[in-house]
Amino acid sequence: MDATAQKRVSMFGVDIDALTFQETVRLVSQWAFDPWEQCRYVVTPNVDHAVMLQHDVHLQRAYKSAHLVVADGRPILWASKLLGRPIPQLVSGSDLTPALFKYWDRPRKLSVFLLGAMPGVAEVAAERIECRWPHVSVVDTLSPPLGFEYDENECGRIIQRVNAASPDVLVVGLGAPKQEIWTYRHRSQLRAKVALCVGATIDFLAGEKGRAPHWMRRIGMEWFHRVCSEPKRLAKRYARDGFIFPQLVWEEMFVE
After folding, report:
1. Is 24 domain-assigned?
2. What is the tally of structural domains in the chain?
3. In a structure prediction context, what are the per-residue pLDDT tens digits for the chain, which is 256 residues long?
4. 146 lies in a domain?
5. Whole-number Cα distances in Å, 60 to 66, 165, 245
6. Distances, alpha carbon 248 to alpha carbons 27, 55, 216, 243, 244, in Å
7. In the sheet that 194-197 helps form, which strands lie side by side, from edge to edge?
8. Distance of alpha carbon 234 from alpha carbon 227, whole angstroms
């Protein structure tokens, strides 16, 4: 299955692949198993991304060149149905990554590189991943220094480290929009088969941050759990997004 052959839904200035969760897992799994040809990268738009995409030209370019764009966040899913452009299923990065590990059924181990999170967190995540999924091998981890994205030499060192490991999957947990823009800019240099731009997923895998209970995720309240967990960092962002996003949906209703 090739994502390019799938229907795409256009909303908020981005084309989203209309794939189910299982279709996404199978596609990424196939990319990770195939011989390396290029670094395909995956982005997962949520409400915050939709808001940033209205004014961030660098993020727009990163999204336009992404090999796979899947909806992360129930408000995006609900908006697609309201607008008559339904996306079949939610595919959050924090669910996609462990699902890929769980459903890997190839005749060899899946090699993974964890890029991001605070120092020491990715190492804990690596131990937990290999304990939970013995068919997954975390070949290396790296927590880049603050401001690394502006330092060409530091970016070069990170690329060399990734390429030395040559992973099937590069899990990029640098936060948006940094992770999408950095991956886009360096995609032609990376010898990883697939890069997943998935935010706080490394923290979740390490147990550093707790995800919302399943019932809260099911009714679209994961954002509330995250705000309560990190009010200083997230309250202002979610307040802004909660004000702007309904306006974007309203404007989309009149887009032909």
Report:
1. yes
2. 1
3. 455 456 899 999 999 999 999 999 999 999 999 999 999 999 999 999 999 999 999 999 999 999 999 999 899 999 999 999 999 999 999 999 999 999 999 999 999 999 999 999 999 999 999 999 999 999 999 999 999 999 999 999 999 999 999 999 999 999 999 999 999 999 999 999 999 999 999 999 999 866 656 666 666 666 565 667 767 666 777 788 788 999 999 999 886 5
4. yes
5. 10, 30, 17
6. 30, 13, 24, 10, 6
7. 68-69, 40-43, 194-197, 169-173, 110-116, 136-142
8. 5
Cα angle 63-129-93, degrees, rounded to a multiple of 5: 20
Tell me if 80 is assigned to some domain. Answer: yes
Q: 118 near 145, Cβ under 8 Å?
A: no
Q: Which pair of tokens denotes residue 67?
A: 């090999």
- Per DSSP, what are the bridge partners of residue 183? none
Q: Which domain holds residue 16?
A: 7-206
